[in-house]
Specification:
The complex is a heterodimer.
Chain A (H helix, E strand, L loop, with lengths): L1 E10 L2 E12 L4 E5 L6 H8 L7 E6 L2 E2 L4 H7 E4 L11 H11 L4 H14 L15 H15 L3 E5 L7 H16 L3 E5 L3 H7 L2 E6 L2 E7 H7 L6 H8 L4
Parallel strand pairs in A: 3-8, 3-9, 6-7, 7-8
Antiparallel strand pairs in A: 1-2, 1-4, 4-5, 9-10
Helix pairs in contact in A: 3-5, 4-5
Chain B lengths: L1 H15 L13 H31 L5 H29 L13 H34 L4 H13 L2 H18 L5 H26 L2 H13 L3 H6 L4 H11 L4 H34 L15 H4 L5 H15 L1 H26 L2 H9 L2 H17 L25 H30 L4 H28 L17 H22 L5 H32 L1
Classes of the chains: A alpha/beta, B mainly alpha.
């Protein structure tokens, strides 16, 4: 469960990147986060993960405020950043071990999960290489593997599907579904409307830092004439002219 | 908790010294440097031994031998403090790799410990280099008991703690408050400049306090007391006093108590550092905005903003913009190169007033003085970091150039020009100092200027060439362009080697008049430039054939 209450965020030159955003992401649901480029998705997610300080308002993860009790809060989630260019100077396996160590993943579980996950994602042959030499999609996968490795209850994913091949994307979507079905929280941003439509229980749409819609597919269809596709609604909602 | 911290330290060091994307051929550069340093090291140890025993002979007779170690500690602490300021600034604030760790459940103090590992390695290397020979020499000449060595080892380990924590605390607090400006890039540059100014300030203070006249007068008085000299020099700085006493009185109980006090002091400082770090570091580090900056173009002006320019102009402008807008580049390429002349100038003025150079010039003939000035300024210009980072600064974007409709030759030429332009700042500064403060004759200065403009082209070419043959492109943080690369040293060695030899030859050929000497220098420069031109051509041909 993630609770975002009246959050505001400004940058030099853009004082209202996020305006008074409130959002509750319940357990057991996959919530998709949509919006045009520059809408504030990554900014919101970075505040949720403690990367960016919150100007006003509060964010709690499983009831723990990220700004006040950051260490405890951080133990509850796993995060896939929008740019997976991190830890490039480590080897894949070194990175995974590092994550395993941070979150105290026991040896046997670690071994087993690394084996199955990297095989599923087909990166097990590259584990001894530096992440530097990975392609975009491979970097994405190694980070996703890191998140799954410590099995947090909340998943926060910033455009996790971008750059994944169809098979890996399918695997990841499947994992998201299973994770949510176990009563956990999955929150991810995406530009793929079909994916959101098919996978998500709820969608949040923002533009220019303001929340335009939040609800499930049924509500969406009720609110905007029944048979409209998500694409049509999205385009209408975010139309600036 | 402890092993999490250890984990973090290990991973940060691993990332820093990782061989990912490393070029193994860099290793051959180490060979001449090591060979070069063996005789130097031998000389250094011999001189240290001689100095210490000479000092000991004189001072022991008046019961003041403790000042020998006092001097060591004071010197060591000052050097380590200044080094800490620079390394901490880089490691804690300019390097942003810490960002990747923020989503993980680490306490700020753990992140700080992780970040401190690398600066500490530098500090221990420096401190080892200075401390061990001096410590050993003193032990030897004073026939020190075993306790001296037993306490010496832990003291050596503790020495960097106090200066490091002092520097870290100052910077963390400063960064926290400067960050109020909300602009992270700007506050980094401000802190950087303030730090350098602070270093100059310390230097001035130290120099003001070592007024030799007054010292002499009090000397007789101080000599009467045991450790009088030691007390005098460590007056404002107790850690050095405690450490000295712990060693000089090593065999007594008193010495052991001093030793314990040293330990407590160092550990206490360190805890304080962690506590302050826990409170201030992340906030100061993150600031309120991110790294990026948003340029808002006023609508009306946009017509003016879209303007066609010659390729070379536009390219060089872009290069300059990138340097001036990236805090790390600005610090390394521009501000630190200004720091050199300013620092020299201040030492110079404080020590001898402006007559200094004039006296110097009087001792030399016109010809000799231009040779000395030439060599000094060439080395100064050659140490600028712009040229040696020409290619590496582009990082992963370097390959973007390959889509541009430009030849590699053009690109390199623009990059060399950029370095040349940046160096004009240093040259101008030196010129102002020369004419304005030191009152060098005008024609003389103009000749120097001419030589420098050409020499500048040489050093810019050399740096760019070295960077071009072994660029460091796979960086994730701008700091890496400048860190742990031998390229800067190589460039200076080559410049100094070539022109040192040339100057030496010209110095000794007395038949050459002043004007002929200048011509010879110019000729030497032109030959050097042509040589690098040929090297460039060879390298380009080689890459094309690949
Ligand atoms: N570090 C920063 N400094 C200044 N402005 C920023 C910074 N980061 C984001 N912004 C601004 O905040 C707004 C939201 O950006 P954000 O990255 O959250 O968009 P996004 O929804 O993730 O877009 P995308 O779909 O392109 O990933 C944009 O207007 C952007 O310019
Ligand atoms: Mg984004």
């Amino acid at each position: 469960m993630i609770e975002i209450t009246n959050v505001q965020k400004g940058f030099p030159g853009n004082s209202r990147a996020i305006e008074d955003l409130s959002l509750t992401i319940p357990d057991g649901k996959i919530v998709g986060f949509l919006g045009p480029n520059g809408a504030g998705k990554s900014t919101t997610i970075k505040m949720m993960t403690g990367i960016l300080p919150i100007d006003k308002g509060s964010i709690t993860l499983n009831g723990i405020p990220i700004d006040k009790n950051s260490i405890e809060a951080k133990k509850t989630f796993g995060y896939v950043p929008d740019q997976p260019d991190m830890f490039l100077r480590l080897k894949g396996i070194e990175y995974l071990n590092f994550i395993g160590d941070i979150y105290n993943v026991p040896q046997t579980i670690r071994q087993e999960r690394i084996d199955t996950l990297t095989k599923q994602f087909q990166i097990h042959t590259s584990l001894q290489d530096y992440i530097q030499t990975y392609s975009h999609g491979m970097r994405q996968k190694i980070i996703v593997t890191g998140v799954l490795l410590h099995d947090p209850s909340i998943w926060i994913l910033d455009e996790p599907l971008t750059g994944l091949d169809p098979k890996s994307a399918y695997t990841l979507k499947d994992m998201m579904r299973q994770h949510a079905d176990k009563g956990n929280t999955v929150f991810f941003s995406s530009h793929g409307l079909e994916v959101v439509e098919q996978l998500c229980d709820m969608v949040a749409i923002i533009n220019k830092g303001k929340l335009l819609f939040y609800g499930d597919m049924k509500q969406l269809h009720e609110e905007y004439q029944t048979d409209q596709s998500l694409e049509a609604v999205f385009l209408e909602l975010t139309n600036d002219e | 908790m402890m092993n999490k911290t250890w984990l973090l330290v290990k991973i940060i060091l691993k990332m820093q010294y990782s061989k990912a994307g490393a070029n193994h051929s860099q290793i051959w550069l180490l060979v001449p440097i090591i060979l070069f340093s063996i005789p130097f090291l031998y000389l250094y140890i011999t001189i240290t031994n001689a100095t210490v025993s000479a000092l000991y002979q004189t001072l022991q007779s008046v019961g003041q031998e403790s000042v020998i170690l006092g001097l060591l500690f004071i010197g060591l602490h000052t050097i380590l403090f200044i080094m800490s300021l620079v390394t901490i600034l880089n490691a804690f604030f300019f390097t942003e790799d810490i960002k990747s760790f923020i989503p993980f459940p680490f306490q700020p103090y753990q992140l700080i410990l992780g970040k401190s590992a690398n600066p500490f390695i530098y500090l221990y290397i420096t401190s080892g280099f200075l401390f061990i020979p001096w410590f050993y020499a003193y032990g030897n000449v004073s026939e020190a008991p075993i306790h001296y060595y037993l306490q010496g080892v832990p003291i050596f380990l503790l020495v960097p703690m106090v200066p490091f924590t002092l520097a870290a605390i100052i910077l963390m607090v400063a960064m926290r408050f400067i960050n109020i400006s909300k602009n992270k890039d700007r506050s980094k540059v401000i802190t950087g400049i303030l730090t350098l100014a602070f270093i100059i300030f310390i230097n001035v203070i130290v120099r003001l306090n070592t007024d030799s006249q007054a010292m002499l007068q009090r000397l007789t008085y101080l000599l009467k007391e045991k450790d009088g000299l030691l007390i005098k020099i460590t007056n404002y700085y107790p850690p050095a006093f405690l450490q000295t006493k712990a060693l000089t009185d090593a065999s007594t109980w008193e010495g052991f108590i001093y030793f314990l006090m040293t330990v407590v002091l160092a550990v206490g400082c360190f805890m304080l550092f962690l506590w302050i770090g826990q409170r201030f570091y992340i906030k100061g580090m993150l600031g309120s905005g991110g790294v990026g900056r948003k340029l808002t173009l006023p609508k009306k002006k946009s017509a003016k903003n879209v303007k066609k320019q010659a390729v070379w102009l536009s390219y060089i402008k872009t290069e300059l913009r990138i340097i001036f807008r990236t805090p790390t580049f600005l610090m390394q390429c521009v501000i630190q190169s200004l720091f050199g002349p300013v620092f020299l100038l201040i030492i110079f003025i404080m020590d001898s007033g402006t007559q200094g150079l004039a006296t110097l010039m009087n001792n030399f003939s016109e010809k000799q003085s231009i040779l000395v000035l030439f060599l000094a300024s060439v080395v100064l210009i050659g140490s600028n970091a712009t040229a040696i980072s020409s290619v590496s600064r582009d990082g992963k974007n370097w390959f973007v150039q390959f889509y541009f409709p430009l030849s590699m030759k053009q690109i390199l030429l623009y990059k060399i020009s950029t370095a040349w332009i940046i160096n004009l700042i240093t040259i101008t500064l030196l010129l102002i100092v020369g004419i304005g403060l030191l009152q060098l004759p005008l024609t003389y200065s103009l000749i120097w200027l001419l030589l420098m403009l050409v020499a500048n082209w040489f050093t810019s070419m050399l740096g760019t060439y070295l960077d071009f043959i072994q660029p460091k492109l796979n960086w994730t943080d701008e700091q890496e362009v400048f860190k742990s690369r031998l390229i800067g040293l190589t460039a200076i060695c080559i410049t100094f080697g070539i022109f040192g030899a040339l100057v030496l030859i010209l110095w000794n050929t007395s038949i050459l008049s002043f004007i002929l000497t200048v011509f010879s220098l110019l000729l030497g420069l032109i030959i050097a430039i042509i040589t690098i031109g040929i090297l460039f051509r060879l390298k380009l041909r080689q890459t094309n054939s690949l």
